[in-house]
Specification:
The protein is α/β, with parallel strands linked by helices. The protein folds into 2 domains: about 190 residues, Glycogen Phosphorylase B (Rossmann fold, 3-Layer(aba) Sandwich), CATH 3.40.50; about 190 residues, Glycogen Phosphorylase B (Rossmann fold). About 50% of the residues lie in helices and about 15% in strands. The chain has 17 helices and 13 strands.
Length: about 400
């Protein structure tokens, strides 16, 4: 069968690549065509466009790039129509993907599945109407999403969380601290990891205050986790030999060797939790208290980080917008590094999160469901033709 996938950012590329590999095991005749990245390309198939040319963030950035965004949307619709896949699989990226879903459902009428749901439970709940009209099934990776969708009488299937799989299968899982610093040419000092986001705008906003906050911990070195698709030049202004370094393609290895981490809200918060790294979560935005209060009214949830959302309580400290200052980050980091009670409380919360996520196998479970659903649809279509 022919599978068309759309992933619009680095995390989507990662998760989609594992789903594709699992589908290929279930369907040996699988053909792939996609909007995605290098990880999906490594599995096989045709990459129509790289996510680097699609990842725009924030109102001003979107307006400044409106023409290429509209061109991407138009070209994607046309490409799907021309290739005529058996199924369209969407990975997060709702502003783009839901528009494509509407068009393809109305023109081709093929099955459309969502793997990694948009965060409707956090904001833009009205998008559930588009999901119900144009998406046949959502394969959820977050356990708390199930109740949200059921309240809206929508068919959702929790398959587990792919981050659990990725960490279980990660390379260098037995690596020592000495091996890590030797490989990356780092000083022999404990590490504070800095994960500043996967987009340039996030990095520009968050990384300077992360470094300022952690710089005073002179017994530690600061190591930035370079984001996929971001050039080293983006990080160069922040580097200082022996004090601030950057590593690429080694986020899990870095976290596993870190004493603590400062993490921009996103999937990285969950990665840090599953690797039992004490963390403070931050997300800087312009606008100060005014934007923060608007943000709070806009959000439908009490927390922003996946760790707290899954636990349904405050496991890690979240410093958002005007609360995201170097002083506040430094204060929380000090607790994590030097207060045993705080450290133990966070670790207990991490264990609870891991238990709620369940066992590895999310891509395989999703792939089996997708292939089974398509096979069932194919048999029903044949019967309809025979009965006509």
């Amino acid at each position: 069968m022919k599978y068309y996938l759309i992933a619009g950012e680095a995390s989507g590329d990662l998760h989609a690549s594992h789903l594709m590999a699992a589908i290929a095991q279930e369907d040996t005749n699988a053909e792939f065509r996609f909007y995605g990245g290098d990880m999906m390309s490594a599995v096989g198939g045709t990459c129509v466009q790289h996510y680097r040319e699609m990842a725009y963030m924030g109102f001003t950035e979107v307006i400044a790039h409106l023409r290429p965004i509209l061109n991407n949307l138009h070209n994607c619709k046309r490409d799907i129509e021309a290739w005529r896949p058996d199924v369209l699989i969407l990975i997060d990226y709702p502003s783009f993907n839901l528009k494509v879903a509407r068009h393809i459902k109305l023109t081709l009428g093929i099955p459309i599945y969502y793997y990694i749901s948009p965060k409707l439970w956090a904001w833009k709940e009205y998008r559930i109407k588009s999901i119900r009209r144009y998406v046949d099934k959502v394969f959820s990776i977050l356990p708390f999403e199930v109740e949200f969708y059921r309240r809206h009488n929508y068919n959702i299937h929790y398959v587990g969380n792919p981050t659990v799989d990725e960490l279980a299968k990660r390379s260098h899982s037995n690596e020592t601290f000495a091996q890590f610093i030797s490989h990356h040419h780092l000083p022999d000092k404990p590490i504070i990891a800095l994960l500043a986001g996967s987009r340039r705008a996030e990095i520009r906003r968050n990384l300077p205050r992360m470094i300022e906050a952690a710089y005073g911990f002179t017994d530690y070195q600061l190591v930035i986790a370079g984001a996929p698709g971001i050039e080293v030049d983006t990080y160069t202004p922040y580097l200082e030999e022996g004090k601030v370094s950057v590593t690429f393609n080694a986020t899990y290895r870095l976290l596993a060797q870190s004493s603590a981490a400062i993490v921009t809200s996103g999937t990285a918060t969950l990665e840090a939790a599953l690797l039992h790294v004490p963390q403070v979560v931050c997300y800087a935005m312009p606008g100060g208290a005014l934007i923060y209060n608007i943000f709070k009214r806009w959000l439908k949830v009490r927390y922003v980080s996946l760790v707290n959302l899954i636990a349904d309580r405050s496991v890690v400290t979240e410093l958002l917008v005007h609360h995201c200052t170097a002083e506040r980050i430094r204060e929380e980091l000090n607790f994590l590094l030097h207060d045993k009670q705080v450290h133990n409380r966070v670790t207990e919360g991490y264990n609870e999160v891991a238990q709620r996520l369940g066992a590895p196998g999310a891509p395989q479970r999703a792939a089996r469901c997708i292939v089974a659903e398509l096979s069932k649809s194919g048999i029903e279509n044949i019967r309809r033709v025979q009965d006509a």
